[in-house]
Amino acid sequence: RFCEAVATQFGPATGTTTLWLLAGSAGMFHAATAFLPSSFTMLGVLAIWTAWLRGSYGPAIALAVYTILLVWPFAVLLYVPLGLAALFAPEFGLLKVLRWGIGSSLLLGGADMAYNTLFYGKPLLASWEIFYYNVLQDNGGPELYGTEPPSFYAVNLALNFNGAFVLAAALPVRPDGHFFSPIQCIILTWEVLAAQ
Questions:
Q1: Distance between CA atoms of 120 and 194, rounded to whole angstroms?
Q2: Global pTM exceeds 0.85
Q3: Which CA distances in Å does 52 have to 61, 140, 190, 195?
């Protein structure tokens, strides 16, 4: 459906090229079958950008909130363009952005907190705990799971983008390993658009 939305928005050639690049990507194949937060975020990004390209801002915002609160809080950066587009869309605007964003946050955050309270015996929001541990604590951060040298990312790009590696290397994007899977579909679409 993502490629259909790309084809509708940017033309059939762009949609078809995006489909072939995504289908031939080792990263998409690997991330689609892994039970990792970045994998679920990648699926969320595909659904959210599909809804956005079709003009369904409300469901896209609700899915973005779901991805941020229940899957991976660091995905918030992926949805800034959606928020800005919805904010400035004549048919949507500030009040609808707030209504969808706050409503989804209260509903999903409340459900998550209730579930965690039941099992942990105290109220907590999983996304806040992940953010707090990885960003705000001294013993958290990327060092917990290790860091990689720059050559790792060059090899990762070559494996994940196959023939589109040259265009991917030219883009001003330097994602880390966890951030790469969710945005791969977006980067490949940008590459197709840039090549036309």
A1: 49
A2: no
A3: 9, 34, 15, 22
